[in-house]
Amino acid sequence: MDHSHATLIEDAGPISPDWTTPHAPAAHDIDATAGPRPRTLDPFDPDSTVDDLLRFLADDSRQHDPALRPPLLAIERALTGHPWRGAPSTVAVIRSIADAARRTPALRGATLSSLVD
Q1: Domain residues of the chain, as ranges?
Q2: What is the pLDDT of residues 8-45, one digit of tens each?
Q3: Is the distance from CB of 6 to CB of 80 less than 8 angstroms?
Q4: For the whole prediction, is pTM greater than 0.70?
C-alpha cells in the first residue's frame, strides 16, 4: 500500500467552532477517560471516533511522538487489514489512517474500541 501521497485530513471540510459535543471530545481531552481502557489503545480514549483521532493528530507536534506508534498501528491495521513491512514512522501510520477514512467515510464515526479489541 502506497502511503506517500496521503494527507492528514484531506477531505474533512471545515470544522465548525462547536464541534466539541458530548459525542466528540475536545482534542485536548481525547486521551482522558474515567474508566479503565484497553492497553492496546493507550493513551487514546476508546470511545473516541476515528474522526476525533484525526483531529487530535492534526497537531504537528503529536505526529512525531513515537509512543503513539503502537496504538496507531493497532488502529491502522484494523482499518486496512494490511500489516506493515518493517517499522513505519508514526507519520506514515497516521497518513494511512487518514487515507482509510478518506476512502471509506463511514469509518470516521467508528469508535476506536469498535475497531481494536
Answers
A1: 39-115
A2: 444 444 444 444 333 444 444 444 444 444 467 888 99
A3: no
A4: no
